[in-house]
Amino acid sequence: MKLFCLGGAGKICREAALDAVEFSDFEEILIGDVNEAAGCEAVEWLNDPRVRYERADIHDHDATVKLLSGFDVVMDGSTISLNGRSTACIAEAGAHGVNLNGFGEEYAYHEQFKRNGRVFVPGFGMTPGTTNMMAVLAANQMDSVDTVRVSHGAFRPIAFSASIAETTTYEYDPALPGRVVYEDGEFVQVPPFARPLDIELPEPYGTHTQYIIPHSETRTLAEYLKPKGVRLIEVRGTWPPQNMRMVRALYEYGFMRNDAIEVNGATIGILDAVARYLIQSEEGRTTELYGYALHVDVTGMKDGRPVRRVLTHTHPASDGSEPGWEKLRAYTRCVGIPMSIGAQLIAKGKAKGAGALIPERVFDPQDVFDELKKRRILIHETLESPK
Question: Can you name the residues that pair with 301 across neighbouring β-strands?
C-alpha cells in the first residue's frame, strides 16, 4: 500500500511520516508540500528509500487530485483553514484519509467517501483523537454516562509554525460559534476563558487552570454517547502559563478581534501583526517545558452504582535524556504519531465503516493504545470516587 503525507514537510506531519517509516510496511511514502526546500529536507531527514517528495499545492484542486490518485491512504497535515479544500481533494482521489484538526468541514464529503468504499477520520492526533479513544474506553465500561471532561496541556511555543499560530488565534476568536459545551441535550456557546477549572496533569506538568476550548470532541462524543444519556461534555485546554497570560491580555484588550489598523499607510489586522511578530521572535518560538499531557474524566453508573474513571497519558521526557524526544519533538511526536497510527490501522483493515466518520465509530481504543505503547506513549486509567 502507498501513503501520501499532505503538508508532510511540517514539523508535526513529518513526525507522522517518521512513525510510518519506523513502524509501517507501506511500500511508498510521498511527502507532498508546497514548500519544496522543506519537503526535500524532510525526505533527507527521513532517510528511507520508500520516501520521496512532490510539490503539492492544495489551492490547485485538479493537480492535487491527480497527485493523490493511486495512493491508498492520505495523512492530511494541512492547517485548519485548508481542511475543507484538502478533504475535497482526498475524497475525489478515492483514497482513505485522516487529519489532525477535525473541525467539521470534512463531513460534507461523507457520501463521496462512502460511495468509494473509503473512510476519512477527521481529528486524530492527541486532542482530538487520543482523547476520544480515552473517553470511549471509560464510557464503554459504564451502563450510563453522566459527565465527560476532556482536558489537555499542550506545552509548546505559541508560534513555532504558521499553522500553530493559526490554531492559537482560531481557538480564542471571541466570535467563534464552535466554542461550545454539551449540556442537557443542547450545545451551549461560551466565550473565551469560560468555566475555569483546575486540572491536575501528570508530572512534570502539574496543576493548571483550564478553560473551555472549541475542540471537536464536544460534538463527536455527544453523538457517540447519546445512547448512554450523557448530560454534560466539557473540553478544556491550556498552553504554557506565559502563553496563557499573553492570550488573556490580548483578549482583554480586543486584539483577538483582529481589527484592521493603519500603519504607515498600510492596512493590517492587529492580531495578524502580533502573529507575524511571534513567528519571527525568540519568545514566540521557545518555551521552558515541552510535551503533552492528557486528562479525561468520565462519570456514570455501573451495576446501579456511581463510578468515575480518570485516564491520563505520559510520554518520554523532553529534557534530553531520551534521544528523539528532545524539547519541541516531545510535543510534535505526541501529535503526529496518533495520526500515523490511524493511517496504519486503516491500511491494516482495522477501521470500521465507510464515509467521513467520527473517530469514536472507526477505531477500537485498545488497538490505538497498544500501538501507542510500542512508541512509549502510555495511557493510564484509574477508578476513583465520584465527585
Answer: 144, 306
